[in-house]
Design a protein that fits this description.
This protein is mainly beta. It has 3 domains: 105 residues, Cadherins (Immunoglobulin-like); 113 residues, Cadherins (Immunoglobulin-like, Sandwich), CATH 2.60.40; 44 residues, no CATH class. It contains no helices and 24 strands. Its main location: membrane. It comes from Manacus vitellinus.
């Protein structure tokens, strides 16, 4: 008597990841559709020889949609949306491996792999002159105000010029890289009157100015490692007569009068002379015609 015995494969083994915990670094300028984790590093095995079905989810709020897998049976992770280091610096993904399709009524065994992705900052932005203000909370653009200063006519300043709103200073906004900044004057420096220190940004005078003309300098801040990463700021230098005397009011006390119910922007009149608007004036011996 010949008896044929068929052994039925029972689904009694869970899928297995070779590396259930993975960590990868990803540059923020990685191109969309680039592979982040290769298929061979994520493929699960099953002793029951079942087909494996994969699903990927992000566990960190605000990082959904950036990473995806190539297909339900292909666990290769790729970049689906451009990264921005200022939005998030890391995320954690969970990759599920099932031996039955999602929604199957059959007994399903599952394995989970945890993938930690660390976003590293790339050199993507040009230097920022400080102080500056972000443009509508856009971290890629920071608007700085022009610098301004004064020098005395026919007088050579021996110290770096004092400027408003502060000294010439630029930084690499890719702050984890913090590349060295080099300064130079690229325009408006008639007769080479001024110099800028390449390392500090301090503005100094090379020679005196004999006319009351103003200067509108263009100062460039360049990254030392990449001349294509630069920004230009304007510096207005006014040439004035040296001030020896402080301004002073022509009288120590001014008296005016108003009436109840006066409309906004109405004149205040001199006390005792209700037909003459009150005028407050000051004088300066350095500027007798002003």
């Amino acid at each position: 008597l010949e008896i044929i015995v068929t052994i039925l494969n029972l689904n009694d083994n869970d899928p297995q990841f070779q590396q259930p915990n993975l960590t990868r670094s990803v540059r923020e300028d990685t191109e969309v559709n680039a592979t982040i984790v290769a298929r061979e590093d994520l493929t699960a095995t099953d002793a029951d020889l079942d087909i494996i079905y994969y699903e990927l989810t992000a566990t960190v709020q605000g990082t959904d949609g950036y990473f995806a897998i190539k297909g339900v049976n292909n666990p290769e992770i790729y970049l689906q949306k451009a990264l921005d280091y200022d939005k998030f610096q890391s995320t954690r993904l969970l990759l599920y491996a099932r031996d039955r399709p999602v929604g199957s009524a059959d007994l399903t065994r599952t394995a989970t792999a945890t993938i930690t992705l660390l976003i590293t900052q790339a050199d993507t932005r040009a230097p920022w002159f400080l102080p500056c203000a972000l443009l509508h909370n856009d971290t890629s653009v920071c608007i700085s105000s022009p610098y301004s200063g004064i020098v005395n006519i026919s007088e050579l300043a021996v110290e770096p010029l004092t400027l408003r709103p502060g000294p010439i200073y630029a930084v690499d906004p890719d702050y984890t890289i913090n590349e060295k900044i080099v300064y130079s004057i690229v325009g408006g420096n008639t007769d080479e009157v001024f110099s800028v220190d390449a390392d500090t940004g301090n503005l100094t005078m090379n020679k005196i100015v004999t006319s009351p003309d103003s200067f509108l300098l263009q100062v460039m801040a360049t990254q030392a490692n990449n001349v294509r990463k630069y920004s230009v700021a304007t510096v207005e230098i006014k040439v004035i007569n040296k001030s020896l005397y402080p301004p002073h009011f022509e009288t120590g006390l001014y008296s005016g009068t108003v009436v109840v119910g006066l409309a906004p922007r109405s004149f205040v009149f001199q006390a005792g002379d209700p037909s003459t608007p009150l005028t407050i004036t000051a004088a300066d011996e350095d500027f007798p015609d002003v």
